[in-house]
Amino acid sequence: MKRIADSTIRRLSLYLRFLEEFEARGLSTISSDELAARGGTTSAQVRKDLSFFGSFGKRGLGYSVPELSSRLRKILGLEREWRVIIIGAGKIGAALAQYNGFAERGFRITAIYDNDPRKIGRDVDGLTIRALDCLPTDRESTEAEIAVIAVPASAAQATADLVVDAGIRAIMSFAPRRLTVPEEVSVKMINMAMELEGLSFALTNRGSA
Amino acid sequence: MKRIADSTIRRLSLYLRFLEEFEARGLSTISSDELAARGGTTSAQVRKDLSFFGSFGKRGLGYSVPELSSRLRKILGLEREWRVIIIGAGKIGAALAQYNGFAERGFRITAIYDNDPRKIGRDVDGLTIRALDCLPTDRESTEAEIAVIAVPASAAQATADLVVDAGIRAIMSFAPRRLTVPEEVSVKMINMAMELEGLSFALTNRGSA
DNA sequence: TTATGTGAACGCATTCACAGCC
DNA sequence: GGCTGTGAATGCGTTCACATAA
């Protein structure tokens, strides 16, 4: 398969959301124009994004809503459930464990870890916080596929190494640090403070920018 | 000022973090190469990013750590404190209110709002959850500059409209929906479920991608 | 000699425009 | 006629390479 841009994948996710809304409303077809309007992009962009994966539409008509959403779910790998573990039971980690938005999208949180003895054994939304040392053995049985790293920046790289050694190939990290990982491991960074700084920049330079 | 790419601003944020670490360790100069290595980019990229704003280095020597970090703080608008309000006291909103990472970077959370009567009046980390209706009048006195939208997707646009009407010009949204706002309003989207879907895609198509 | 600053070259994502099919 | 699918054109961020200054 040809290399696909990250931005394309992010848009596919977005299209799928709209398709699911349309599906819920019982609509049967949709045009690239309608998808584009909802996603804040152009119809050409929508068609190009889809074209990397095949031809799903009918000329003169548009796309079948159930068919296209099924194709997108397949492309994105969302036909199965993914097992997610959270490392770090601080404010962010604990909030994520309690957040329902992941499960709704097929990402089931199976465990939460920390290395602070005061936190280990405590309960977070039905999950018991486990010692980080347990991770390698735990994984042999649970086979989690995705790790969320929500530890302090200074511990992020060591945590990533541990997670990769345990056989995990996908990481979502909240630490403001670039993680060095083998190339077969995918990493997504989420940095809220950095986004706020982007807003600070925009506010400071508005008018002239 | 010339239009600056988002990616440049995000990298400036990152450089600033490294500079602060260097400053804390008492180092006085740093080269574009060292900054690049830490940030996972190239020295040419670092120099180009900085060149949009001026010439801060000394040829043959590098950059003065305290001077460059001060310049970056000024560029990013981080010499002042920003007042942030959170809309939506659900899992995400409440977690953000308790999270210390923002205050550390100069973003002070001054209020949290919800429109669920059962939540209004409750306390979250020292802040009392206020009725959403209070926002317009509150803002006249508090003059918050940034709003974090952590409401369900279906309410996101209405919330954005309310916030914009109240005079706020910067929004960080956690709702998986494109927000339509006047062009003078800056919006940053954070969508964790979408990032997870990106990982799902990578895992599903690994090897062939 | 060393490392910055920057115009020029490059590569890649987006946009255009139209041929192709319903 | 309407809308998709796609090569070609465009625009833009990144990389290169070297003149410039310490």
Task: Briefly summarize what is shown.
2 copies of one chain form a homodimer. With 209 residues, chain A is of the alpha/beta class.
Uncertain segments of chain A: none
Biggest chain pair interface: A-B, 63 and 64 residues
Shape of chain A: globular
Structural class of chain A: alpha/beta
Helix content of chain A: 40-55%
| End-to-end Cα distance of chain A | 40 Å
- Overall mean pLDDT of chain A stands at 95
Oligomer: homodimer
Strand content of chain A: 15-25%
Helix count, DSSP H or I runs of 4 or more residues of chain A: 9
* Total strands of chain A: 10
The side-by-side strand order for the widest beta sheet of chain A comes to: 6-7-5-4-8-9-10
Series of secondary-structure elements of chain A, N-terminal to C-terminal: HEHHEEHEHHEEEHEHEEH
Radius of gyration of chain A: 20 Å
**How would a crystallographer describe the biggest sheet of chain A?**
7 strands, mixed
Structural commentary:
2 copies of one chain form a homodimer. With 209 residues, chain A is of the alpha/beta class. Helix content of chain A is 45%, strand content 19%. Chain A has helices spanning 6-24, 32-39, 43-51, 65-76, 91-98, 101-104, 135-142, 153-165, 192-205, and strands at residues 29-30, 57-58, 62-64, 82-87, 107-114, 123-124, 127-131, 146-149, 170-173, 186-189. In chain A, the strands form 2 sheets. In chain A, strands 6-7-5-4-8-9-10 form a 7-stranded mixed sheet. In chain A, helix 1 packs across helix 2 (32-39) and helix 2 crosses helix 3 (43-51). The longest helix of chain A is centred in the N-terminal third of the chain and has 19 residues, at 6-24. The radius of gyration of chain A is 20 Å and the shape is globular. The interface between A and B is large, with 63 and 64 residues. Chain A binds a DNA duplex (22 and 22 nucleotides) through residues 5, 7-8, 31-33, 41-45, 47-48, 50-51, 55-63.
